[in-house]
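Collaborator request, handled under Task 6.
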Amino acid sequence: MIEKQMRYPRRAFIASDPYGAEISDGDKVVGLTPLAVSLHGSPRSFTLSKTGYQDLVFYASSDTFFNLVPLNGAMNSVQSPYLSQPATKDILPVYLTAAAAVLAGASAAYFKIKADNFSTDYTNTGNNADLSRIHHNDTLAGISLVICQVNLLGLAYLLFSR
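Structure tokens returned to the collaborator:
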């Protein structure tokens, strides 16, 4: 009987917040976070470094995630790129646009239901006055639907531009 043993290197996924931290294995730079590294044998020592943050030495034996600490311990010295602009703190336009989209969608549904009811009445009675009511309510439903779509586009713009 022939027996052969194969060893596959273990891999560890290393990630950090903020990303883009440099991972070093001794004097050799391995790459930037997030990164999957091969582990051979026992846990290996790595150094995680990023400008403006404290260096971190760690041993990797499995997937790891690190929150980097800013220099001098000042947690507020580094601002988040997402909410660092003054315009992103005012969310009233988001609320107004979302409310307008919901109201316009509800009114579109209301007018379309009314138009369908008049259509049923016209089918049952044959009254020509119901035709103008159908047309009027369908027109209002269409206008409400367009207003809803415009508000949804505005909401998407507001959310993605922040």
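The cover message to the collaborator said: "The CA atoms of residues 47 and 57 lie 4 Å apart. Residues 92-125 form the longest helix (34 residues). Please let us know whether this matches your experimental observations."
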